[in-house]
TrEMBL record:
Keywords assigned: Hydrolase
Protein name: Alpha/beta hydrolase
Organism this protein belongs to: Sinorhizobium numidicum
Domain (AB hydrolase-1): residue spans on this chain: 33-255
GO MF entries: hydrolase activity
Length: 272
């Protein structure tokens, strides 16, 4: 779902993967090293639009994950399934060396992908990540997600709460994010929620060879301190940054600050 005059949507290209399923993506075409950016649960590649001006020295490859935005649903709704689809997508594009940036569910997918592509991933940035993202079957949030029915109202209370931020974010951007999320069928919301309950990325994290930067907000309502602490102990080489007062979407709340942290980290990792 997109609005008339939606420049981000118009920039999307589509490729068909083996099996006939397609992936939609934006490719900045930059001449620098490739960065693959993976968005969160119910989002689309638009999630990273505000980072793009600050990362203009890189080639940004920003797909809609399967079942999100303009990408077809794949064979499953676990983050491991998404990683398989994105692995095939990269092979189709001929991209063999890249850094990874993932937000929330996209960060989980990035961990799985980095574990599969140990020799190809030069650096890994995790925004608001978790190794064990189960929201709890009886939690209010899980009950609200399971209660979603089509058509989902983009202006309803659930999506307004879902896209609330701890710091000011442009209302127009959040409105477009809600529209994108409302376009995702309720069955996909439900399937991913169930996949989270069955996800444990501790083994995959131990397979990651690339240096890792974890960025989280101290006011993150989904993945609080214990999630950040587990990440800080999970990887061979990891640096953790907690942004005081930031929520689950620090790259929306302060894209310039988050981009600066990433660029510094990429420089330390030897990316030029």
């Amino acid at each position: 779902m997109c609005s008339v005059g939606d420049d981000w949507h118009r920039r999307k290209r589509r490729v068909e993967l083996p099996g006939g399923r397609h992936i939609a993506f934006v490719d900045s075409g930059g001449s620098g090293p490739a960065l693959l950016l993976l968005h969160g649960y119910s989002d689309t590649g638009r999630s990273f639009a505000s980072l793009e001006p600050f990362l203009s020295g890189y080639r940004l490859i920003i797909p809609d994950l399967p079942g999100h935005g303009a990408s077809a649903l794949g064979e499953g709704m676990h983050v491991s399934d998404f990683a398989v689809s994105i692995d095939r997508f990269l092979a189709f594009l001929g991209v063999s060396q890249f850094a990874l940036i993932g937000h929330s569910m996209g960060a989980m997918t990035a961990i799985e992908l980095a574990a599969r592509r140990c020799d190809d991933v030069s650096a890994l940035v995790l925004l608001s990540a978790s190794l064990r993202p189960d929201f709890g079957g009886g939690s209010p949030l899980s009950r609200e997600i399971r209660a979603l029915r089509d058509p989902i109202d983009p202006s309803g209370q659930f999506l307004r709460d879902w896209y609330s931020c701890s710091r000011p974010v442009a209302a127009e951007f959040l409105s477009k994010m809600r529209m994108d999320a409302a376009g995702m069928p309720a069955a996909v919301w439900h399937g991913i929620l169930q996949g989270f309950a069955e996800t444990d990325l501790r083994y995959s994290a131990r397979q990651v060879a690339a240096p890792v930067l974890c960025i989280g907000g101290s006011a993150d309502p989904l993945f609080a301190g214990p999630h950040r602490e587990a990440l800080a102990q999970a990887f061979r080489s990891v640096r953790s940054v907690t942004l005081d007062g930031y929520g689950h979407n620090p790259h929306w709340e302060d894209p310039q600050r988050v981009s600066a942290l990433m660029i510094s980290f990429f420089a330390e990792a030897g990316m030029v």
